[in-house]
Design a protein that fits this description.
8-stranded antiparallel β-sheet; Rossmann fold; mainly beta; 3 domains; Jelly Rolls; N,N-dimethylformamidase beta subunit-like C-terminal domain-containing protein; 681 residues; 10 helices; DMFA2_C
Length: 681
């Protein structure tokens, strides 16, 4: 259902295609505005001061209008496809209704419409309506059959619920005529009502030539689905990105793996707030200069009341520096447009990006749909209203994600630390080759989400002698998958209480069919790669680190050259310190290598910091209370590389700005200088 963009919180919103690219290529800006656009220019964001550039932005001929969002997914067989069939006499499908209030449409084709009004079945044929007063049961599979013969139409609905069986037979004394027009499931042909929250499966048509059927695959398809059953192939479209690889009427609990029982996962889940990749026309285009340095850039769109910056990344296509910064775009995309509903979270500051998301019913991968199922897939081709250099996270009242990473990159520029830049999506696509010849990979403040391919490339890189400078917290944790402009995340029940709780049976990713959830559940991830994982999370005051005796060993002491204090990191832009928001600690039981050195520790966290729910402590409460800490670690690898873990989302935010210097800056500078100077592998 289309609705105009609500620009009350942000006068301008948009996205770029692509989101990241190399020098010498083009980037298009797709934008909506409620204000007259005054100018559009390019700004570099990762330098000490935002740097306007004189790069030419070319208009495409499409103005910057006030555009629409199209919310809600549904299924459609176009009229042109139906015309290929011979004498359609019936349709059958399976549906699993979830939560639907108000007016909805279950099925519409030709002169027949089956609707719901607050869950009660309504129907109409040739303008003759029926308000049956019958409430269709939710959360159980229903089989719907519609047949037409001898000038009459019969509707039959049966449920699978053995304890509360449901059966409906209803006849119309008029024939069903499927043509003209499309056949749609979960919306009206005019798409003028909210779409249905429901799972669909086993759609088929009865024709004079035989049965035409569609089976929903477990793997996300690239286009419309071809029918089986007759020589004439008909195509069914899935509109606006419903979720694939969903349990169907055939799922019996015998397996949670769609690769073993694909017939148990032949359903799609449609939601009234689904939104696939947008198709706004481009308003302008940039030809990135061939000599453009890698970095973080933005289209700055000016209007009479101010401006907005729409971020994109220019990545390195050839090695120019020994160090490479890995932009955590998977994390940025997972958090983008987070709702943070007021009844669940206390806001400590306002941010216009979150207000824009709420006003426009946008959803992040931390949010749940209107029927309480989790949002599991999203596209880069959408506004990312919270991905800004001036962003403040309402849960902690301070910068988070991109602005914290920009703070680190600006520190590098101010201190003469040369680096190349690639995105984690580059790493996903190129694998180890994307890290070729670099001495070390540097992460951002919160590289939480990774694909199996990304994590494996980092593991290979370290095994071949490369080093990893993990400058964040709660990293290498959640598994994601990519397909074109889409990223998918299925949450594990282990994450209950932190965000939406996915069912174990529907944890597999539709892009790969691999189990979703934590990387560590697949024998990968934080502990086995870095040696640390999230231990505490909280939104109150951050804590400083204090050196441990191990930090004075020759293999670690070089990190602290010029650091005179035992305790460091007592201020910063993230909660006022170096250890905060989400912090990591070791756990040998969960896979920390015995070679891992704990070189600094932060303690004394406020009671509001909560333990990670996935950890179990043999000693019970007393041992758990003794592990209320963040642990900075260093591990020298047999390959010659090393892995440094700052173990805090707040670490980069504790770096000094401009020409200033502090102990967090000295440690970081010592680390990066050491890694850059290592003998080439």
């Amino acid at each position: 259902m289309k609705r105009p963009v609500d620009h009350g919180a942000m006068a301008v919103s948009g996205y770029t295609v692509p989101w990241h690219t190399a020098a010498g290529t083009s980037v298009a800006l797709h934008v909506s505005s409620s204000q007259q656009v005054r100018d559009i220019r390019i700004v570099r964001l990762d330098t000490p001061g935002a740097e306007p550039l004189n790069w030419r932005v070319e208009p495409t001929g499409n103005a910057v209008p006030h555009r629409d969002f199209d919310h809600g997914s549904f299924l459609r067989v176009a009229a042109t496809e139906l015309a290929k069939a011979t004498e359609i006499g019936g349709v059958a499908f399976e549906v699993y209704l979830t939560r639907n209030d108000g007016a909805r449409v279950l099925f519409e084709s030709g002169n027949l419409r089956l609707g719901l009004q607050d869950g009660r079945l309504t129907s109409g044929l040739d303008g003759k309506s029926l308000d049956s007063g019958v409430a269709l049961p939710a959360n159980t599979w229903l089989k719907v059959e519609i047949s037409s013969n001898d000038g009459a139409t019969v509707l039959r609905i049966d449920s699978d619920d053995l304890l509360s069986p449901f059966h409906l037979d209803h006849g119309f004394d008029l024939p069903w005529r499927p043509l003209p027009g499309d056949m749609v499931f979960g919306t009206s042909m005019a798409n003028d009502v909210r779409s249905l929250n429901a799972k669909f499966s086993a759609i088929s048509l009865q024709t004079a030539a035989g049965r035409v059927a569609w089976t929903f695959p477990t793997l996300l398809p690239s286009g419309p689905l071809a029918s089986t059953g007759t020589d004439r192939v008909l195509f069914l479209e899935t509109i606006n990105q419903p979720a694939f690889c969903m349990t169907s009427r055939r799922w019996d609990g015998s397996s949670f793996d769609p690769r073993l029982v694909p017939s148990h996962y032949d359903a799609v889940h449609c939601h009234d707030d689904d939104m696939g990749a947008l198709q706004w026309p481009a308003s302008c285009q940039l030809q990135v200069p061939a000599a453009a340095p890698p970095g973080v850039y933005a289209f700055e769109v000016g209007h009479d009341q101010g401006s907005e910056r729409i971020v994109f990344f220019i990545t390195s296509s050839a090695r120019r520096a020994p160090l490479v910064f890995l932009v955590p775009t998977a994390t940025y995309l997972a958090y983008a447009d987070e709702f943070l509903p007021a009844h669940l979270y206390e806001w400590r500051c306002e941010d216009r990006g979150h207000r824009f998301a709420i006003d426009n019913n946008l959803k992040s991968l931390y949010d749940y749909h209107n029927d309480l199922s989790g949002v599991s897939i999203c596209a880069t081709r959408k506004p990312k209203a919270t991905l800004r250099d001036d962003y403040n996270y309402p849960l902690c009242g301070c910068p988070h994600n991109l602005p914290v990473d920009l703070h680190f990159l600006r520190f590098c520029h101010s201190n003469g630390i040369a680096f190349d830049l690639i995105t984690d999506r580059d790493l996903h696509e190129r694998g180890l080759a994307g890290l070729q010849d670099y001495q070390a990979v540097i992460t951002g403040s919160h590289p939480e989400y990774m694909s199996v391919e990304m994590e494996h490339a980092l593991r290979q890189f370290a095994a071949a002698g490369g080093s990893i400078a993990y400058l964040g917290g709660n990293g290498f944790a959640g598994k994601v998958a990519f397909h074109d402009d889409l990223m998918e995340l299925r949450r594990s029940p282990l994450e209950a209480g932190r965000t939406w709780d996915g069912a174990i049976a529907e944890q597999s990713l539709s892009i790969t069919n691999q189990p979703g959830g934590y990387l560590r559940a697949s024998g990968r991830g934080e502990f086995s790669l870095t040696g640390v994982a999230i231990s505490l999370m909280g939104f109150d005051g951050a804590r400083p680190f204090t050196r441990t005796p191990e930090s004075r060993q020759p293999s670690a002491a070089w990190l602290f050259d010029g650091v005179t204090s035992e305790t460091f990191g007592d201020d910063g832009i993230v909660l006022g310190g170096a250890a905060g928001y989400e912090v990591d600690a070791t756990d040998p039981h969960l896979g920390t290598s015995p070679e891992t050195m704990v070189i600094a520790r932060a303690t004394g966290f406020p009671d509001s910091f909560v333990h990670d729910a996935t950890r179990w402590y043999e000693g019970g409460d007393s041992e758990r209370d003794g592990r209320r800490c963040a642990e900075m670690t260093l591990r020298h690898l047999p390959s010659g590389g090393l892995i440094f873990c700052a173990s805090s989302v707040a670490w980069c935010g504790a770096l000094p700005a401009g020409d200033a210097m502090n102990d967090v800056g000295r440690i970081t500078k010592n680390l990066l200088a050491h890694l850059a100077a290592k003998t080439s592998r």
